[in-house]
Request: fold
Amino acid sequence: MHITKDRNFYKLILSIALPIACQNLITFAVSMADSVMVGGLGEVSLSAVTIANQLFFIFMILIFGLGSGANILVAQYWGKGDTKAIHKVMSIIYKLSILFAGVFMLIAACVPEQFMKAFTTDAKVIELGGEYLRTIFISYIFFALTNVTISVLRSVQTVKISIVVYGVSLITNIFLNWVLIFGNLGAPVMGVKGAAIATACARLVEFFIALGFLIFLEKKIKFKPVYLLKTDKILLKDLVVVGGPVVLNELVWALGSSTLALIVAKLGTEVVAANSINNVVWQFVSIFTMGAGHAGAVIIGNTVGAMEYKKTKEYASTLILLSVALGLMGAMVMFVVRPYVLLLYNVSQNTKDIALQIMAAGSLMLVFQSMAFVLMIGVLRGGGDTKFVLVADIIFLWAVAIPLGYVAAVVLHLPIALVFIALKCDEILKVGISLIRVKRGKWIRNVTR
Reply:
């Protein structure tokens, strides 16, 4: 491994990763606030919102895949200095994001109970989850447009606006949660429905800030709404070839994660609630890893677009070592803070005991998750090797983690900690195969015209 001595790399990684980490921290704070405030209503409400948000999770990952696929093209075209191509890519992904949002909005508005029944048989959980989805469905289109905008801006190293967008969203969400969930300032007590309204309002605020910045303040891309009137068929084909595997990858991974959630749901409402707490903690300890991974994808993409391939390989080696360090730090933090986090939740002692076991297992797997994320998202995908990442994810998630997790949870009834290690075992395998791929050097693909 050749570690780069290029000071510009370290400046770039900090200038991009830190704002992304701050964005992730704000997103974590929103999830934490929702989890704690809804958790104050008890396990049933917390489980209802957690399961209902599986639909949003699948949608979010799909939009993330769309944005990430576009990122590869945008980052390389930015490295090449071709902004006209970037305009055409943006026009395509805005149209696709609206299409995807429409499909998920129909599911949330028209058949929410049927979606909930796929995860649980608890009638009260299904009822509350259906109410939540019918209220929040309109926010999906605002989320989609905001996130693809932020994603494209990140590819050209404009990242600070995301802190403003999500910072204002955080304040809006927490304030409206406090007002609407618990009936403060004279508002009616709305419980789970209040949480949905608060989140929808926060998404609308995000959208208007991002849109305003893009149209009136952004100086690099200079995108104009009139560009939406045309669709470049050649770049559409490129986006399908390069970004298609990314979208499919994220969708397959999201469906796999929902399948894992189905396995967890079979273990009972208390385990679902405990896992919800675990997921919030995982978001917190992974904020810098996620920042480094996304920053790595931008830097690797820009470097490949500029055809500086030796520098690309040095940057990749440096990112791998960084992922190990971040994973170890995150694992230690997660293990130490476990008992203190549980003080924030109004749940049963049994749920707390289960959460402690899940978080202990999670801290063990965090190093592998950190390396896998940076390797696959930051290095391989950033370098244009999207098909390899897709195949690796499908094989290790669907052929290994899901079957082993099901056997561990439903057939053998193993202890909770061992069940969650089985559910995450694909991360170890992804690290091994990705390291081999990077070492062989066949992952660098210039996809610009």
User: Anything to note?
Assistant: The chain has a mean pLDDT of 90. The chain has one domain: 7-440. Residues 7-440 form one domain. The two ends are 31 Å apart (CA to CA).
